[in-house]
Amino acid sequence: MFIACEFFLEELAKYIEAHLIETKAHWLRLHFAHVYQENFKNFTLLHENALVSLVGRDDLQMKEIMIWNYVIKWGIAQNPDLPSDYKDWTQENFLSLKTTLQSCLPLIRYFQISGDDIYEYVHLYKKILEKALWKDVKMRLLSPNKPVASKILPPRTILTKKLPTRTNEPFSTVINEIHLAEISSWIDKREVKCFTENNPYEFKLLLRGSRDGLTNVAFWNLCNKKTNVVVVMKVKGTDEILGGYNPIGWEKPNTDYTTKPCNDSFIFSLKNGAIQNSILSRVKDPTKEVIFNYFLYGEYEIFQIHKKSL
Predict the structure, then answer these.
(1) Residue 187 and residue 73 in one domain
(2) What is the mean pLDDT of residues 286-294?
(3) Within a 13 Å sphere around the CA of 154, how many CA atoms are in the beta-carbon half?
(4) What is the mean pLDDT of the chain?
(5) 237 lies in some domain
(6) pTM surpassing 0.85?
C-alpha cells in the first residue's frame, strides 16, 4: 500500500487498504506496532492529517516517549531552517515548531511518560508546551496523587498477542509408554521390566516417516552418526510392531556400505493388539548377524536415547 501511495495510485491504495481492513483486521491489530513502525521509517514525509490521525489512536502500539520523539522529529523535518543543535534555537525557532505541531501536541499522553523520559526528552522542548501543561506534568511527577488542571488522556490500549493453542503431539504414533519401558529393560539387560514411571531413559524422536519423509535423504539428514538409536515400525495391514536397537549408530557411506560388529544391538517384535507377547532377539555372533528381508510398513520412527540424570 505504501508503494501505491508513493506513486499516487489513489484508487489502488484505497482498494488495498479496504482489503487489509476487511480480511486482515485481526492480523493488523496484532501487528499494529510493526505496521506503523515500518511506515514510520519515512514518517517525516507523512501529511499532517495522517500524522494527527495516527498519534490520536488509542491502540497505537508504541511507548508514549517514542511517539513524542517521532512527533518532534517530524516537526523539525517540516522546518529545515531550524539550527541542528536545539541549544542554538531562538524563541522564534521554538514558536515555529510549536505552530507546526499544534494539532499533534494535545494528543500526546504526557502523564503516561516516566519521569526519566520527561527530563531526558520532553524537557528539551518544554518551550513548545503550554506553561500550564508543563507545570502540571512536573507537579504530577512530584505528587502523583495531587489533582491537576490539565486534561489527562487515558493510557493507550496495549494489545496482547495471543499464541495459538498448543497441541501436545504424542511422543510416538507407533509405540506407547509400556513399550518404552520394555525396550529400556532390554537395553539394560534386565530380567524384570522397568516401570513406566521410572524409565531410566529419555527417548528423543529423530525421525518420523509421516512427518519427515520415507526417503534415504531424510534418514541420513536426521540420523547420520547418531548413536544409541531405537527404530520402531508398524507392519502395514497388521498389528505387528517391529524394531531394533543400534548403540553404535549408522554412518553414511562414501562408497559401498560396510558393517560393524556390535554385541549389544538387538531386534524385537512388540506386544500389540492381537499379538500377545513380545519377542527379543539378541546378537549371538557379532561377525555374522546381518539379516536382509523386505516387508511393507505403514509408519516408522527413530529415537535417540539418553540416560536420565538422577
Answers:
(1) no
(2) 59
(3) 6
(4) 82
(5) yes
(6) no
